[in-house]
Specification:
Elements lengths: L3 H8 L23 E2 L2 H7 L8 E4 L3 E7 L5 E7 L3 H14 L10 E7 L2 E7 L6 H5 L11 H20 L5 E2 L8 E3 L5 E3 L6 E2 L25 H6 L4 H17 L10 H4 L1 H11 L2 H4 L10 H14 L2
Parallel strand pairs: 1-5
Antiparallel strand pairs: 2-3, 3-4, 4-6, 5-6, 7-10, 8-9
Length: about 300
């Protein structure tokens, strides 16, 4: 299967053509394309970085829920101060100011003042897909199969846009279920573009190799040819998306050291259960008996082609 993303969208009759954009490869901050906030405005929005405003924390920094001066609710990401943090900050702002799609998190603005760097993004209320797959959030409820498909299609649309919606493809490099956010309507939006990279004009004929980028991402989601050889193409994202598709079906993390050795790696266990014909016993117990066989078979075909 040459185009798993297109196959998923076509399978559900949802493939749309995205308008192509001309992306600028320059690292300068895009003053004219989004709002530049002062540090005073950021402090006011987050109640001076009150601990109760924190909604997330990771390697790049802390995310606060804030209210801007016009009443807009926003996610305010306070980047950690370092050389790499500065590069990733500029990268995310530069790309997001030029990308607009219903299935990508939208950039509102940014702030740079002294050693402080902030990215201000639209607030996505329900949290991440991971929260609902793995029972992380306080509002956890098992997702129906129809809703899971709806979320996967949204993610596929966003990823398809990144790969085909501009003259230069955008490789996300950090596709995983915790970077897929869900709004009130369960619309899936891809987030976290600090590590994203512009590809060459024709991704099918070129590679970005190890000597032009450092290998980054989350182990278990990275394509083998990327983390072993440093070869990065849009297929690297497709592989990561395939891992998420299996997480959606199994309702578990792709790597779980608490499980028996033959089950700790989701992809290894999937291959084993497919080979032995036990896939129906291995999927998320909540989904058993709730997926039409022909739908499950097509879903497995698409997911398998992503990680092939």
């Amino acid at each position: 299967m040459k185009n798993p993303l297109g196959s998923l969208l076509s399978f559900l009759g949802l493939k749309k053509k995205s308008p192509r954009l001309e992306l600028s490869p320059r690292l300068e901050l895009p003053e004219g394309f989004c709002c530049r906030f002062s540090l005073a405005q950021i402090k006011a929005a987050t109640n001076n970085f009150h601990p109760l405003s924190i909604i997330g924390e990771g390697g790049v920094g802390i995310v606060y829920k804030g209210t801007l001066h016009d009443g807009t609710i926003a996610a305010v990401k306070r980047m950690r101060f370092s050389y790499q943090g500065r590069v990733e900050f500029k990268n995310e702002v530069r790309l997001l100011c030029q990308l607009r799609h219903p299935h990508l998190v939208s950039l509102i603005g940014f702030c740079v003042e002294g050693s402080e760097m902030f990215v201000v993004l639209e607030y996505i209320s329900r949290g991440s897909l991971a929260d609902f797959l793995f029972g992380i959030g306080k509002d956890y409820v098992p997702l129906s199969w129809k809703r899971r498909l709806h979320i996967c299609v949204g993610a596929a649309r966003g990823l398809h846009y990144l790969h085909t919606g501009a003259k230069h493809a955008v490789i996300h490099r950090h596709i995983k279920s915790s970077n897929m956010l869900l709004d009130e309507e369960w619309c899936c939006k891809l987030s976290d573009f600090e590590l994203s990279k512009l590809g060459p004009p024709s991704m099918s004929k070129a590679l970005i190799r190890k000597d032009t980028c450092r290998v980054v991402g989350t182990y278990g989601y990275m394509a083998p040819e990327y983390y072993l050889n440093g070869e990065l193409t849009e297929k690297s994202d497709v592989y990561s998306f395939g891992v998420v598709l299996f997480e959606v079906l199994y309702g578990r993390l792709n790597l779980d050291p608490t499980l028996p050795d033959n089950q700790s790696s989701l992809l290894t266990w999937t291959k084993e259960s497919l080979r032995e014909g036990t896939i129906h016993h291995a999927i998320d117990p909540y989904l058993k008996g709730r997926i039409a066989p022909e739908c499950l078979n097509k879903y497995l075909e698409i997911a398998s082609s992503c990680v092939h």
